[in-house]
Amino acid sequence: MKILRLAIVFFLTCSFGFAQVKDVFYPLAPNSIRFNGYFGNDIQNSINHWNKGVVPYSGFVKLFRNGSKLFAQGEMWGKAVRSGCMFYRYTQDPELKSILKATVYDLLTTQRSNGSISCADVSRQPDGPNGDLWERKYVLLGLLEYYNNVEKDPVVLKAMCEEADCTISQIGPSPKVRIVDQGWSPNHIESSTILEPIMKLYNLTRSQRYLDFARYIVEEEGGAKGYKIFEDAFNDKYPEQIGGSYPKAYEMTSLFEGLVEYYRVTGNEHWKKSFLNFFKNVWNREITIIGNGGGDQPYHPAVYGEAWDNTALEQTNPNIQRMMETCTGITWLKFCSQILRVTGDPLAIDAIEKYAYNGLLGAMKPEGDGFSYVNLLNGLKTVTTGWGAKVDSVNVTCCNLNGPMGLAYLPYVAIMNSDKGPVVNLYNAGEATVLIPGKRSAQLKMITDYPKSGKVIIGIKPQSPQQFSIRLRIPAWSKKTILKVNGKIISVVPGTYAEVNRKWSSNDKIELMFDMRCRLINAPHGSNRAGDHYQALGRGPIVLARDENIDADYNKPVTFKVSKGYLKIIPEQPILKSARMQFRVPTATGYIHMIDYSSVNSWNGKHVCTWLPKVVRKEN
Q: 432 in a domain, yes or no?
């Protein structure tokens, strides 16, 4: 039956060429949204001090011209450029465009005689141990973002095709080199992640050879040497069980991003079930309180804190030394955006919000010129050591390159379009131009200081009165949400979209009040460590933490004053100007001060305590 199913898919694809699955939600046009305050400041900080600041673009290009000094180092150029291009999509900043254009055309001068853009000379290609295919993946992703979001230059498209064609000439069934025999890892999973840009290039060109190569990766090789990654997910294997001894969280999630692109073209529900199972199991088993996942305990200590490891359960494990790689979080965010677009599932944007406000902002340097490699929940929050090297005197790691991409994706998903009308996913102050039925536009203006408070006002201004729907995400954590349209209350359900269909005019107003009560969060049970000895606090989408910068007793046991699962905390002026929020929190022995996790500054060596130990009463 499996052979028959694959034969039918092959016939349909070859006969009809392009069986596109239409997304439920799709992004606004470039430069259609502008953030204020939260997110807006962080985005501009990253653009100014990273993408337009210290990024050594010319040094990255030299790696292709002169050879790299570290395996996979050729990824650096593509990572820096793709976030810059997404930022340009948001800002249309001419200075940023000039920087991006210069480095793209500088890179094109390194093209080798066989059409490849590679850190390895032709005689050593494909250069498996040094991650040649992984590097080419990021070359393609950087050029794709430039072509799609900055300038549709046919010279760039030609270079992408030549890069892909060279790869196809070298990689494939015997007598070529199998893709699962390329790479540095035990199962070579990273090489198959070239699936994503190959599918995006197919969407641009409709060239059958790219779809054929994608089919080879997915349906013949299966994603890794000795393991059918996609089939394991289809059969509902847990993430930490997929890929043998190397369930690398970042690369595996990137691989499933490519599978979503493959599904969009083939329409094969088998692959949809595979990536939806993966999404479900990562969310349930791996994502921690701050929205990221992966760790070094207890199953895969040799993978340096970057493996799927049942991290949702293990997140209070005191033996964990490294967890939640920023590259994992960014790729999870991007994968969630794919799930959101394909399915319209509000859980996907709940996951994005959780990571954005906590793990993403919590990994960013206060100065905006980099990101932590991994993050801890207790101890030294930011850990900068990991894969990377100095390039033109700038310390560059995979994670401080990837972090800006997470910021750049927030405008992309915050407010989206659908066939029925706009979809509001994230509640950040700002303005947006959206599409409404009939190919007309409308303006949305959001006034809020969310998540400092739960009050949101949205003004709607269509060109003329028109009937359409506005969908508003009601976060699962907000158990008591008040929604009003022109003063009239509309009932809502947590964890869903509230859809308001009416004839909208320029005087209409939406009001939302989210449930910002402080919630007590008990540590996960069932591990081998008395997880019930830990507790945490959440307020809206924000996780609170104790900060050694303001509290010498930051890691001492506490007994919170709780009523029916909630605490009465009091907002107060932050002691540190860098803190976004600070609260007085009631305990059995008085008040303690807690701030939002993202504001805790460990770059100066100070510590954080997010899972707070309880006061344990001694037995008589």
A: yes
